[in-house]
């Protein structure tokens, strides 16, 4: 890939000049163009992405697309899908898209197909009751033990696809907090529970600690010999797995060309396939593949991941907006913002460019959010009347799954109303007229009116999808994955390494050792004091 400092491109310089001319323009003014909504909408399959309520003009879009061209986005996409080692600091390709490739790309196709077949056979046997526990009882509960991408992706998808779930009860253990572990297992029956341990190296501290605690609880109930019927692993460390007691036929491999935060499409998604059945899991993959094809083939001006990424760059680097809100108007997607926090912030939270130079421009975005309408009663006050500019993605569905039109109409009325309110706001004149109409005295109007003004001009992007299905969810997740990639290309950073995760983990190992010899530990005064107080408690 090209290593281009984006600030040195012609397009960036022109965008800076253009920003000065448009930064104070209100969205209401931009909407004087009656064709604006149509001009800034992408209609793809069952997705409609309306980005007209963003503070851009056609000139803005043209310049942003020119920026994408100057940094070599088209060539970068070819490298991405072509299996080049674009994760250069780790010497790896980034090929999670190969896990869901139903086209002609031959990269790793045979080994991926083999693992998919193993997942299908295993999940079918668990779901139909053919695979039984050590005492002959059918499996009723599945516990996924992992952290990071080995937890956030699977739990998000399982929660999102609750409507499609089968009879198995699915649980997730991630935090090394022992109370969390005990709360999960305290009501489980070891005779009917399957544990899925997900760790590529089988050395992750949190996962191994939790798995060991669960193993002890299980062995105390059923003995060592029962492990083979109740534990499976997703990993590459066959020796450690064997030492743990897991049979080789119950191991599902991973590959180093799949980053953890993009691994739900792999055998890491085993708990998803168990929860919703293999057919729905495959529909998830196929939906993602359709978005992959769109990203590869669609012209940039009609390309959902490209346009949404360019909008993020526009706000982050020119308006100085440090965060983005993701607001799904469905409770099923309540874990999506947390999933995207890892996917986006772990990927693009970098301060060194691909040349190894410190960066003097903004990268990354702070991602946060909650489902609507709950979020309207929480943080929307800050978005509407606060001092920060917070672009927001609104994600909604035309149809509810259970068909309750009364509830869904109310939900979607709020969905549409909020984007309009954020755009238009309410002027002082409108406030005064409203208060006067309600019989408020002139004196009270003068006192109250400043507090009831909404400036508006708050940008939103509407992602409206026909229905929440495994396929549409797969496409939505893939959309955000490719958005991450585009941002990383433009910011000239390596999106797929994660060295920033390591420092604290390394130090935690030392601190754990120091607990036994605090007098000879070497820490700053604050940390030393805290460790001493902790050990005395």
Q: If you had to describe this structure to a student in words, what would you say it looks like?
A:
The structure is a single chain. The protein has 537 residues and is of the alpha/beta class. 47% of the residues lie in helices and 9% in strands. The protein contains 22 helices and eleven strands. The protein has helices at 10-22, 27-30, 36-39, 58-70, 73-82, 109-127, 152-160, 178-185, 205-222, 227-230, 238-244, 270-276, 278-297, 304-319, 336-348, 380-385, 405-424, 428-437, 442-448, 470-491, 502-514, 525-536; strands at 41-44, 47-50, 141-145, 169-173, 193-198, 231-234, 251-252, 323-328, 366-368, 392-397, 460-465. The strands form two sheets. The protein has a six-stranded mixed sheet with strand order 1-2-11-10-8-9, sandwiched between helices. A five-stranded parallel sheet has the order 4-3-5-6-7, with helices on both faces. The mean pLDDT is 96.
Short description:
This protein has 537 residues and is α/β, with parallel strands linked by helices.
Topology of helices and strands:
Blueprint: H1 10-22, H2 27-30, H3 36-39, E1 41-44, E2 47-50, H4 58-70, H5 73-82, H6 109-127, E3 141-145, H7 152-160, E4 169-173, H8 178-185, E5 193-198, H9 205-222, H10 227-230, E6 231-234, H11 238-244, E7 251-252, H12 270-276, H13 278-297, H14 304-319, E8 323-328, H15 336-348, E9 366-368, H16 380-385, E10 392-397, H17 405-424, H18 428-437, H19 442-448, E11 460-465, H20 470-491, H21 502-514, H22 525-536
Parallel strand pairs: 3-4, 3-5, 5-6, 6-7, 8-9, 8-10, 10-11
Antiparallel strand pairs: 1-2, 2-11
């Amino acid at each position: 890939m090209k290593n281009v400092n984006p600030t040195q491109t012609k397009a960036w310089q022109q965008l800076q000049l253009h920003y000065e001319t448009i930064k104070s323009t209100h969205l209401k003014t931009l909407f004087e163009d009656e064709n604006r909504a149509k001009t800034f909408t992408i209609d793809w399959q069952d997705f409609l992405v309306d980005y007209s309520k963003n503070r851009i003009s056609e000139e803005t879009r043209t310049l942003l697309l020119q920026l994408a061209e100057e940094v070599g986005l088209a060539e970068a996409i070819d490298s991405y899908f072509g299996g080049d080692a674009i994760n250069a600091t780790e010497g790896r390709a980034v090929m999670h898209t190969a896990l869901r490739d139903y086209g002609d790309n031959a990269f790793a196709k045979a080994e991926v197909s083999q693992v998919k077949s193993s997942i299908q056979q295993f999940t079918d046997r668990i779901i139909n009751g053919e695979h039984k526990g050590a005492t002959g009882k059918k499996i009723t509960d599945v516990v996924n033990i992992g952290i990071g991408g080995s937890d956030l992706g699977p739990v998000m998808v399982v929660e999102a696809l609750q409507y499609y779930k089968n009879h198995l009860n699915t649980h997730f253990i991630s935090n090394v907090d022992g109370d969390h572990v005990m709360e999960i297992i305290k009501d489980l029956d070891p005779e009917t529970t399957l544990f899925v341990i997900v760790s590529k190296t089988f050395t992750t501290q949190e996962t191994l600690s939790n798995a060991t605690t669960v193993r002890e609880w299980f062995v105390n109930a059923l003995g060592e010999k029962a492990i083979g019927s109740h534990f499976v692993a997703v990993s590459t460390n066959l020796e450690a797995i064997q030492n743990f007691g897991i049979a080789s036929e119950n191991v599902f491999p991973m590959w180093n060309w799949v980053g953890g935060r993009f691994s739900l499409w792999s055998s890491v998604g085993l708990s998803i396939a168990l929860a919703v059945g293999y057919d729905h899991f495959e529909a998830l993959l196929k939906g993602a593949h359709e978005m992959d094809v769109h990203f590869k083939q669609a012209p940039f001006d009609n390309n959902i991941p490209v346009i949404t990424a360019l909008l993020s760059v526009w706000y982050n680097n020119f308006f100085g907006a440090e965060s983005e809100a993701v607001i799904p108007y469905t409770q099923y997607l309540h874990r999506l913002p947390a999933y995207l926090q890892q996917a986006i912030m772990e990927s693009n939270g970098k301060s060194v460019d691909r040349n190894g130079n410190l960066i003097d421009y903004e990268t990354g975005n702070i991602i946060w959010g909650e489902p609507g309408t709950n979020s309207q009663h929480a943080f929307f006050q800050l978005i509407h009347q606060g001092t920060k500019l917070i672009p927001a993605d609104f994600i909604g569905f035309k149809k509810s799954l259970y068909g309750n039109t009364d509830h869904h109409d109310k939900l979607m009325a709020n969905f549409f109303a909020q984007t309009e309110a954020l755009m238009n706001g309410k002027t002082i004149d409108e406030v005064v007229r409203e208060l006067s109409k309600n019989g408020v005295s002139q004196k009270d109007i003068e006192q109250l009116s400043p507090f009831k003004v909404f400036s508006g001009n708050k940008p939103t992007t509407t992602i409206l999808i026909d229905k929440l299905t495994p396929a549409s969810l797969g496409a939505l997740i893939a959309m955000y994955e490719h958005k991450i990639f585009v941002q990383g290309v433009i910011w000239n950073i390596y999106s797929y390494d994660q060295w920033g995760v390591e420092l604290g983990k390394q130090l935690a190992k030392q601190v754990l050792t120091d607990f036994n010899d605090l007098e000879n530990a070497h820490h700053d005064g604050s940390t030393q004091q805290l460790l001493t107080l902790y050990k005395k408690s």
